């Protein structure tokens, strides 16, 4: 079974901004015998494929799709907002792909699957489902967006906690529920994303390391291997 997660980089992938704030609606069609690794990005996804609804939890390492190629549609939630949608703390889904029926009542999921199966645009129908659920769930933790923005910009975790007016312990607890791991891991994931964006734009590896906030190029190389299991050059060659 091929299970997507977030930000696939192989051909056959397309995305657009969602009407749900900060979210992305995406589709992926088979483009080869094997899927590209799905890299950690701080997000969680609601997934639809071949009559099944699944959830991709927050990753701390690359997820490598398995099984035959398949078509997928997904909604990728803004970091930290999916637990309110799902009613499940993110820490319970870390590094997991689970059937939605494990989290919600089976009759509800069967009804939703029937609705998506009948839709001419499954990705659009999945977005509608997310919008409806988000409206019923209420607003997310107001701490999340400024926290993500600060860490994505490279702000230190301690300084960010001070700026947000919370203790390190409070920040860690709220991060576990929202992101599936603590703020330091989130900062590392977001730093990796900054580095990959720079490297893919043609910036040299040494300059990428400096601009993304790594101590040096060796530090960047270690983090890339830890998160993805491959050297940076090999990762970039995948597209």
Tell me what the structure shows.
The protein folds into two domains: 125 residues, no CATH class; 94 residues, Arc Repressor Mutant, subunit A (Orthogonal Bundle). The protein has a six-stranded antiparallel beta sheet. The longest helix has 18 residues. The protein is built from ten helices and six strands; from the N terminus they run βββββαβααααααααα. The chain has 239 residues and is of the alpha+beta class. 37% of the residues are buried.
**Low-confidence sequence ranges:** 1-10
Taking all residues together, what is the mean pLDDT? Answer: 91
Topology order in helix (H) and strand (E) letters: EEEEEHEHHHHHHHHH
Output the number of helix runs.
Answer: 10
What would you call the structural class? alpha+beta
Oligomeric organization of the protein chains: single chain
Number of structural units classed as domains: 2
Shape: globular
Binned, the helix content reads 40-55%
Cα-based radius of gyration, to the nearest Å: 18 Å
Distance between the termini: 22 Å
User: What order do the strands of the largest sheet run in, or round the barrel if closed?
Assistant: 1-2-5-3-4-6
Binned strand content: 5-15%
Describe the secondary structure blueprint for this structure.
Elements: E1 13-17, E2 24-28, E3 45-49, E4 52-56, E5 72-76, H1 82-86, E6 97-99, H2 106-117, H3 122-137, H4 144-152, H5 157-164, H6 168-179, H7 183-200, H8 205-212, H9 217-228, H10 232-237
Antiparallel strand pairs: 1-2, 2-5, 3-4, 3-5, 4-6
Helix pairs in contact: 2-3, 4-5, 7-8, 7-9, 8-9
Pfam family, one: DUF6597
Keywords: DNA-binding, Transcription, Transcription regulation
Protein name: Helix-turn-helix domain-containing protein
